[in-house]
Design goal:
232 residues; alpha+beta; Arc Repressor Mutant, subunit A; Nonspecific Lipid-transfer Protein, Chain A; 5-stranded mixed sheet; two-stranded antiparallel sheet
Length: 232
């Protein structure tokens, strides 16, 4: 039996929503990703075939609909009315996780691709001068193929580049992956990381002063952990 075999609405909802990866696919859709490749960036450890399978299941459940792309070829995935009703539930899961499941991250929990994808959605270009500003990142402890990233901040959005976009870098940040993840999750402040030397920022003083305001944090960063210390 693949389901719970119960008429209870909780059981019926769980059959759809608790399949492995499904809450994270919903998270990406809620955060605004609509193209298949963008969804893949948000769940980089999920195979393309499994993502296709989960999207098909969500469509059959009436949670997601597939539409022709608004620009260019291909398709886009959008939440239906039923899917949009799930947003408070998914966000409450994140809030609960930040409050009660937050812990020291194991190495396997650190993912530079996901971190940069999340960060690029939360930065605040308006905090920088009204021109294109390029912020380069170097992660000192990841494989060379994923060590350098660029955020091109312009207008009201920022583009994420895995290859050198060819523009002069205005601000260059150097840190290990754990430090930048801790900054993103709100466990370490930018100023504290700079003071300790865990984060280096190279560039004009005016841009360095804007860094903390520009570098938007996770929506769950303000939530204080209430998890009790682990017993030794």
């Amino acid at each position: 039996m693949s389901g719970y075999g119960q008429f209870c609405p909780i059981a019926q909802a769980a059959e759809i929503l608790t399949a492995r990866w499904t809450p994270l696919v919903l998270r990406e859709l809620i955060c605004g990703s609509t193209r298949f490749n963008d969804l893949r960036r948000g769940v980089p450890l999920m195979s393309s075939s499994l993502l296709s399978q989960r999207l098909k299941g969500l469509q059959e459940a009436g949670i997601v609909e597939c539409r022709p792309a608004r620009a260019g070829r291909g398709s886009e995935y959008h939440l239906t009315e039923a899917g949009r009703e799930l947003e408070p539930l998914i966000m409450q899961m994140g809030e609960w996780g930040a409050r009660w499941a937050r812990s020291r991250l194991d190495p396997e929990d650190l993912d530079v691709t996901l971190l940069m994808w999340d960060m690029h959605r939360r930065v605040s270009p308006a905090c920088f001068p009204a021109r294109r500003v390029v912020v380069g990142f170097e992660f000192t402890d990841v494989p060379a193929s994923k060590r350098h990233w660029w955020l091109v901040s312009e207008g009201d959005a920022a583009d994420l580049c895995m290859t050198d976009p060819g523009f002069e870098v205005d601000l260059f940040l150097v840190a290990d992956l754990r430090t930048m993840t801790a900054i993103w999750t709100g466990d370490v402040t930018v100023s504290a990381a700079l003071t300790s030397g865990a984060l280096e920022a190279h560039g004009p003083a005016a841009l360095r002063r804007c860094l903390e305001a520009w570098l938007g944090l996770s929506v769950f960063a303000p939530i204080e952990s209430r998890r009790a210390p682990a017993l030794v």
